[in-house]
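Continuing the series of single-chain predictions for the mutant panel. This is the parent chain; the variants come on the following pages.
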Amino acid sequence: MLQGQDIICFCNDWDADPLSKKHIMTRLARHNRILWINSIGNRRPTASARDMQRIAKKLREFARGCRQVQENIHVFSPLAIPVHGNAAARWTNRAFLNLQVRWQCSRLGFRDPITYTFVPWSADIVGTLGEKMVIYHITDDFTGFTGADKQAMYDMEQRLIEKSAAVISSAGRLQEKVHSNTPSFLVTHGVDVEHFRKACDPATPIPAELTLLPKPVIGFIGLIEDWVDLALIRHLAQARPAWSFVLVGKIVADDSAVRGLPNVHLVGRKSYESLPGYCKAFDAALLPFVINELTLAANPLKLREYLAAGLPVVASAIPEAERLQAKLAIAHTEGEYLQQLDKLLAAASPESRLATSRSMDNETWDRKVEEISDIIERAELGPACARAALA
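Parent structure:
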């Protein structure tokens, strides 16, 4: 494991749902110090109520200053202009962000830090902070997000790749887009197996709101954005009116396709700690993704979390789901979703659920962070050593 380093991490917001970034950084923080820089956003804000609320939240967080959220992790929310396609705005951001981040590093006593970034918008500031090395970890196709300036995102990502000592990708499709001499590595997501295996424990309580739902219960956990195929959920719910469909997560997309259906239950965002209980209530889980450029490059955390919870899973045919097809079922059409669910539900048993959970024992976040640590240590020794890790 990497030890004794100061790490500047450009990331999403710390208070958001635990994504791969938080799993990685909390483990690195066992032996290193982390300055976590909250996101300034990937798209130009609009006059919508949602964006106005986000701007107000960012101002409040900036006013709070740098705060320690747990041992060895400090979080800072900088002020910046999220207009990535404008050269003047980028120049202003670079100068202002540089001052803000350097000041926080000075306060914390950081020396020769490593910059570890997950976000393209950091391209103009990384390499200007006195760091000894930049690592870029790609977890999404940022050009595919709704509202993003696609050309600006692409250009920033290319600059970031060129500045990096190593590039890590969470999905094969993302790695294919790295056209550079920079050493490139594929490290798929991990999972907190012990946490989600609680779904197999008889002592784990099922949330009260789910205990009286008619069986079987078919579940989804995650942000309900425009990449979630709610029209598919509607079709499944209408085709199986005796089943219960539970969607756990914050709703951002238009949910009119499923709102009002008697057997579809939108229960909202739940704490990470409570998710094993929700998984325990499910008889099967879904990854109902629309197929587009964004999802084809995605490696959803929930797939491995479902499996660690022992759940039978039916997923849309995205490459990273197909990588796990020995452990789950793939569906290309609405009819295939129903056929696969019928088959999995008929074969389910407590023993098979525990066996599914155990099949994820080699996919832990601890193992993935050890792999990442090795990449960083080799990159610090120089490009030749980093490329040797590819051999």
